[in-house]
Amino acid sequence: MTHRPTTPLAGISERSALHRLLDPRSIAIIGASTNPAKRGYQAIRALRDSGYAHPIYPVNPTATKILGVDVVASIDHLPYGVDIALIALPAAAVPRVLRECGAAGIPGAVVLANGFREIGPAGAQLDAELLSAIADSGVRVIGPNTSGVFNVETGANLVGLPGVPNGPISVITQSGNMLLSLVNDNRAVRGPGFHSYVGLGNQADVRYDECVTELAAQSGTGAMAIHSEGFVDGRAFLVAAADAATRKPLVLLRGGRSAIGGRTAMSHTGSIAGSDAVATAVLRQAGVELVDRSDELAVVAGALATTASVRPGRRVAILSDGGGHATLAADAMTARGIELAELSESTQAALRVLLGPTASVVDPVDVAGATDADPSIFADAVEILMKDPAVGLVLIVGLFGGYHLRFDRSFESVENDTATELLALSAEYDTPLLVQSCYANDKIRNHDRLRAGGVPVVASVDHAVRIAEALDRRRVRRSTAHRRTSFVLPAPAKPVATHPGALDEPKARALLEATGIDTGAWTFATTIDDVTAAVTEFACACAVKVVCSQVVHKSDVGGVRLDVVAATAAANAQRIIDTVTARVPDARIDGMVVTPMAERGVELLVGATRDPIFGPIVAFGTGGVLVDALEDVAFRAAPLTELEAHEMISETRAARLLDGYRHLPVVDRNALAEFLVRVGDVVAAHPEITELDLNPVIATGNSLVPVDVRIVIGPTVPVPMERNS
Amino acid sequence: MTHRPTTPLAGISERSALHRLLDPRSIAIIGASTNPAKRGYQAIRALRDSGYAHPIYPVNPTATKILGVDVVASIDHLPYGVDIALIALPAAAVPRVLRECGAAGIPGAVVLANGFREIGPAGAQLDAELLSAIADSGVRVIGPNTSGVFNVETGANLVGLPGVPNGPISVITQSGNMLLSLVNDNRAVRGPGFHSYVGLGNQADVRYDECVTELAAQSGTGAMAIHSEGFVDGRAFLVAAADAATRKPLVLLRGGRSAIGGRTAMSHTGSIAGSDAVATAVLRQAGVELVDRSDELAVVAGALATTASVRPGRRVAILSDGGGHATLAADAMTARGIELAELSESTQAALRVLLGPTASVVDPVDVAGATDADPSIFADAVEILMKDPAVGLVLIVGLFGGYHLRFDRSFESVENDTATELLALSAEYDTPLLVQSCYANDKIRNHDRLRAGGVPVVASVDHAVRIAEALDRRRVRRSTAHRRTSFVLPAPAKPVATHPGALDEPKARALLEATGIDTGAWTFATTIDDVTAAVTEFACACAVKVVCSQVVHKSDVGGVRLDVVAATAAANAQRIIDTVTARVPDARIDGMVVTPMAERGVELLVGATRDPIFGPIVAFGTGGVLVDALEDVAFRAAPLTELEAHEMISETRAARLLDGYRHLPVVDRNALAEFLVRVGDVVAAHPEITELDLNPVIATGNSLVPVDVRIVIGPTVPVPMERNS
């Protein structure tokens, strides 16, 4: 007998299901327990201990009160429209419970149980039932196989972790232990604390992209710290991230980047990590700040949550109280490609007056002992630097804040006052400040004062420089946001082919030309006489290549003749026919492509693939026969903009070949960028193209001639997702 | 009037001056002061506070007692043969004082003052006087511009830093602040403490190489943490480090690696950092563990000081209590090139029984919740892993040690007992253990128990993996020590040339052949008839190249003709003469080199240079016209061994071309390694050769034919040291 609730919950929310999941104003605990060892008991305790002030509904058929809270006998006895359900029941019960939640008007559920896709074939059946229940009920599900969700501000602690400080970092991960690491790392560096936590587990329903969009809209979120082992729909994540990153910084640590790591991630959360090089490139393209080290996630996210970007058009100035740290900071900046500010002569003169004859007054500035007797000089030096129009961020390295520990206790009040003054300067000059101090791990009042004012204080030079890098990259992003892709794919154009497989070269060339990409002069000859006519018409040495669907590597079977002139054309064509038919007995020769021999130029690689996670991707790099050995290739998601094409070119070693390297001609970078944009537009509009290879493209001036054109059409059924890391 | 000491100090040491500097049993404070703000007062206080139990002699002309210690009026009133003098006087006084110390039988001095070479031209005069005084007096000097030296074990604290814990790490740096960072970093990670500290400052006399040798001989030093901005004699450092590293691990952080950092280092300690790529390669060749991050120096040195290498012939096993950390650890291992152990079937079966059906029993092993209710299961799992003959180190990642904080206080004693058991297992199976725990920054008894037993416990996955990498590299070094160079240069051979400048090609080829390096078939033709004769004799297509000292880039001025056959030889030779003389009016053509056209093969680069810091260096990489763009080059100090040549080859992308890449022939790696060893022997024995370039060398099978041979002879006067970073 189904109970029909007669009293809907007062003020049923207009908010979206996901909004209610991340900021619930009423919570049902399905599987509530009187046993303190059970999660269904601990969850209620955690909510109360965290100060959750909204209604809690423990659901249990036999108990009446748990921890003083009235128990509801079953889901259908709940008031209609509770915000979310925490399902603390074994996997097998979950599909049924979800359907009951749907009937009770609960829009969202957190499913803790494991035993679904992440355990492999044994969990497949239950996983299918879970997906059906989600579809049927309309309940939005976070999990399964999750540690829960947590809104620190409201105390909606469905993770059970005590003592998480309230602050601006919001976390999305697939690992509960990663949350523990972040909380402990944040505590160790005295970071700014947390706002929301979402443990996505297997992402059976709610995914990263939706959470990113939701958290970017929360006023309490200053920055997102994201740990992911894979995206279900990478393209959707790119779209959401690129949009969210214009408002809130996204910092991402990816697990499963290596082959072994990818396998581990699969057995952990059933996630597919995909190609690391592609993921790294396109996530950065979307404005996501990628960290390579797990110990940087809390530090960088904390800094981005509290600290402004480097000022537009300006650079970093280092202020050091010792040459050792100045040198290391400058090295680390260089290694990360961050330029230091060129200080004006008047700045240098002012620093010389302040700091005396032994100081270094170019960036990195080294006070060389000038602050030993009076740490307040730091504020004077910072003001001189912030006045310089070249300076967009000041990084102090060395001992600041610990002078009273190292030299003299009486410095304590001086350092406290200096910290206050530094905050005022940062505000007055609208210029962010970072501090590295080897005393940063101590509990020092002036450091905490700086942190509270949005100045990160860290012990590690490397962390400080890593933060500067992130703030500097945000400077670049902000000034170029309007020149970047939204990652939204256009509506598919009319397919260029319907049968899967490689197009023959004439079709491939014709396809590119139809989309406005010139492939240089060529003729498709179907008779030997046609070959001779084509070579005669080109009136220069030509390449003649067999067109034959049975041949994959043309030159391996004698299917290519070079430097063919009119007089030798017929003989060469006959030689191709003889050799190919001898070596490939079933070969059906469709004809031959005749092209003028390529001019001398820079050999480039231009290509495109359809990534199973992120969709259409453009590749660019050094072309020619060494391409596999060199692995000099940059990736971008298509469609891409000209700015992004230029950035892509600059990342490669091929870029060094473009400006007149040795005896090679100069290549027009604008023409090259435009070419890459067009290739991107083609693959973005043609989902049936799964592979496009132009290798080499011979580049001279603004001429870009693909010597070989290879296009592969995929099957019309969606390509199954495959690991390709 | 000079006072002659009549009472030499009892038991004058037989120990070397440097030994006495690093472990002084009597100390004179020159410039002792009654003013507590002065270093000459603080030094005495620091010695007393640090428990220094040997004689202290403050030297001051007016005072009688300082801090209760009897004052000596002048240096010549000291007992003869005090171990060391701390000179706390301004720079100008230092040369005179050193001479007085020498007369008083003091073998070593620590000079704190700055104002010498590090301030540039203004300090040059005083620097010269300092060097004279050192030479004249025979006193070994540490500094100037140093924070001092410190023997933590004896309390010989000449730095003034309080509270440095006694332990096995010995530090050599040029930055006093770096010592502060190391001490604070060590404290933050609850590391093992310090034994000796040497601040070398400007290295006017005592250098890194001597300190490394001295510290390696100290029983109290477990590992060295070295920070350097440059080596005065890099070759001496390589010799000393390679020898010391067989006994004690050396961990090195280099400052001044970038151009800006190098400039900063120069103004900090007058140091020359040199080429970063060369320094990185040769220091690693010497067995030095290089860290790229300042926040890794204390962590890695602390671990190497207390923890054994990965067992020979074995690999790393990861044991995790969560998939997130297992994945990240596996990724970080892969990124650092560390192989994980392949666990035997019986190991996997035993883990399955212990950990249940959801655990991952391949490396990385993930207990997947099996330890949540009983952390002692870690010890059982570790024992299973250590029994496996594939496992040479176990790395635990996740929460271990913090279960009592995360789950239940009652786990505290279980975790303490488990820690004890883990130490016993590590000893029983002679297998090192590392622990990463996100609770490592808390003060936890079981963690400290592990640390005291030589098991590093760290919070960062990256630090844990970095330690594993260092222990793994030590495994490799230990098993191959006998197959590596000592870096000792042979006595110079008879010079091959005395005039500086580039040798002409026939001389360069003859030189190589004289040393046993085949340069392929070639003839030096001095007439047109000789050219024809040579081409005729080779009976194949040939290359003809002009020999002319006025021509640097032969092909740019028409000095090279390819594919020359007998019939066209004379015309080609005449064409070369005509073109070159037309384009280079003052050209004096000495003749032409005729070689058979190179076969198709792999184009490699083999070269050698004389590094201003480290001496003769061999280079290897991808050759041909793209060489500058690709920058695919590995370096080794010469003379090098075959093993080192093989390692060098493997580091390059060129290595991918050697095993039959595309249509290229297979190259015999042994022949290539032997070739590199011979080139190394040549440049090691011929200091007059400053540059040797074979680019390309065409490699096919075991044939290695240099197409071009370029050798430059340096001036006979020593090359002035130059920055080349």
From TrEMBL, chains A, B:
One Pfam family, short name: ATP-grasp_5
InterPro entries named among the record's database cross-references: Acyl-CoA_Synth/Transferase, ATP_grasp_subdomain_1, CoA-bd, Ligase_CoA_dom, NAD(P)-bd_dom_sf, Succ_CoA_lig_flav_dom, Succinyl-CoA_synth-like
Official protein name in the record: Acetate--CoA ligase family protein
Domain of life the protein comes from: Bacteria
GO molecular function per UniProt: ligase activity
Taxonomic lineage from the root: Bacteria, Bacillati, Actinomycetota, Actinomycetes, Mycobacteriales
This protein's record includes keyword Ligase: yes
Keyword terms of this UniProt record: ATP-binding, Ligase, Nucleotide-binding
PANTHER family hit by this protein: 3-HYDROXYPROPIONATE--COA LIGASE [ADP-FORMING], ACETATE--COA LIGASE [ADP-FORMING]
Record-annotated CoA-binding domain positions: 21-116
